[in-house]
Amino acid sequence: MAENNTKVTQAGSDIRMFWAWQSIVARLTGLGKTFYIWFGISAALLAAGLAAGMHAFFVGYGHIYNVTREVPWGILISTYVSFVVTSTGLCLVSSIGHVFGSREFMPIAKRSVYLSILTIMAGFLVMFFETENPVNMVVYNVLSPNFTSNIWWMGTLYGAYLFFMGIEFVCLQLERHKLATYAGFLGVISGIAAHSNLGAVFGMLTARPFWYGPYMPIYFIASAMMSGCAAIILFTWMASKINREPLEGTMLRAVDVTRQVGILMICVIMFFSAWKIIAGLVGGEAEREAFLALITGPYAFNFWAFEVLAGMVAPLVLYVMSRGTNLNMLVWGSISMIFGIFFMRYDLVVVGQIVPAQFEMGVNEYPGLLSYTPSAHEILVVLGGIGMVGTLFLLGEKIFAAHRVEEHAHEHESRPALEPVQQSE
C-alpha cells in the first residue's frame, strides 16, 4: 500500500513538473517581434562579451587589455563596481517593502530581488574576465583566506549576499513569505556589509589620496540607493511594455515612492560630491592634481556632462517635474541617471590612478598625468555584462509571470486595533 502511494505521489510530481515546463514554453512563444528583437540584441551582446573575454583569457590579458602596471584598474573594475552598486541598491529598495513591511513598495519587491541577482551575476561575469586567474581566485579564497584583506572580505560577503538573495527569490516563488523575509533581511545585512567593504577597498588606500578617506563606504551605500531607484523605475516601465500591461494603481504608486527616495539620494550624492571636491582641492598636492584633472583637465567633460548633468541634475529635474505621473520624464530621468552613474564609477576608478604614486616625492619617472583608454576587448566584455542583464531580464519577465505580487502583500499590514473580526457563518 505504501509503495502504491509513493508511486502515485511520484506520478503527481512528474505531471506537475511537465505542466510547469509546458507553461514556461507557452510563455516564451508568440511574444511579438519587438520582444524577440530586444532578446536577440541582448543575447548577441552577451555572446560578444563572452567571446572577447575568452579570447583575452587564452591570449593573455597583457596583450589584449590596456591596463598597465601604473594604471592596473580599468573599465572592467568600474563596470563591476557599477553592477554591484546597482544590485545592492535594488536589494535595499526591495527590502523596504518585503523585509520591513512598507506596503507601498510591495508591488516592485519580486522584480527588485530578481534584478539584484542579475546585476550581481553580471558584475561577477565582468570580474571573472578581469581577473587573470579567476579559478585560483575562487579556490584560494576558500583554502587560503586572508582575513586582513578588504578584497577577500568583499568577495566573501558578496558571495553570501548572492546566496541569501537567491534563497529569498526562491522562497518568494514558492510563496514561503516568512522564510523569504528572513533571507531578505540576511541579504540586506550582507549586502550593506559587502558594499561598505567595497568602499573601504578604495577608501583605505593611503597611496591614492583621491580615494582615501572614511566617507567612501558611506558614499557607496548612498549611491547604491540612488542607482537602485533608477534601475527599478526603468525596468518596471520596460516590463509594462513587454507584458503589455499599463502602469497604474498600486504599481504606479510604488514607482512614485521610489522616485521620492531617488530624489533624496540624488541630493545626498550632490552634497557628498561637492564637499569631497572642496576638501580635495585644499588637500595634498597629489590629491589636488587629481581633482583638477577631474574638474578642469582631461576628465572635465566626463565630470560636467556625464556625472553632474546626466547623472544628477537632469534626473533630479525630471523626477521632480514628473510628479510621479509623467512616465516619460521618469524613464528618461532614470536612463540619464544610469548612464551618468556609469561614468561616475569610471572616473572614480581611473582618475584615482592617473597621478603617479611618487608624485609628491619628486620622482620624475612620470612627470605628467598617466593615461588610460579601454581596449576593444574591454568594451566588449562590458557590453557582455549589459547583455547578460538584458537577456535574463527578458526571460525572467515571461518565465516568472512578470513577478506579480499576490494578495499576500497585505499580510504586512497590521489590522486596526478596534476593527472587528468578521466571523464566517
Structure commentary:
The protein has 425 residues and is mainly alpha-helical. It has one domain (35-359, 366-401): Formate dehydrogenase/DMSO reductase fold (Up-down Bundle). The chain has helices at 2-27, 33-59, 61-64, 75-98, 109-130, 134-143, 150-173, 177-203, 216-242, 249-281, 285-295, 300-322, 327-351, 376-399. Helix 8 (177-203) packs across helix 9 and helix 9 packs antiparallel against helix 10 (249-281).
Average predicted local confidence, pLDDT: 83
Cα gyration radius (Å): 24 Å
How many distinct folded domains? Answer: 1
Helix content: over 70%
User: How many individual helices?
Assistant: 14
| Shape, per Cα inertia axes | globular
Profile the largest sheet.
none
Low-confidence stretches: 407-425
Q: Encode the helix/strand succession as letters.
A: HHHHHHHHHHHHHH
User: How widely separated are the two ends?
Assistant: 40 Å
Give the CATH level 1 class.
Mainly Alpha
- CATH level 4 superfamily: Formate dehydrogenase/DMSO reductase domain
Number of strands: 0
* Beta strand %: under 5%
CATH topology-level fold name: Formate dehydrogenase/DMSO reductase fold
Overall SS class? mainly alpha
CATH architecture: Up-down Bundle
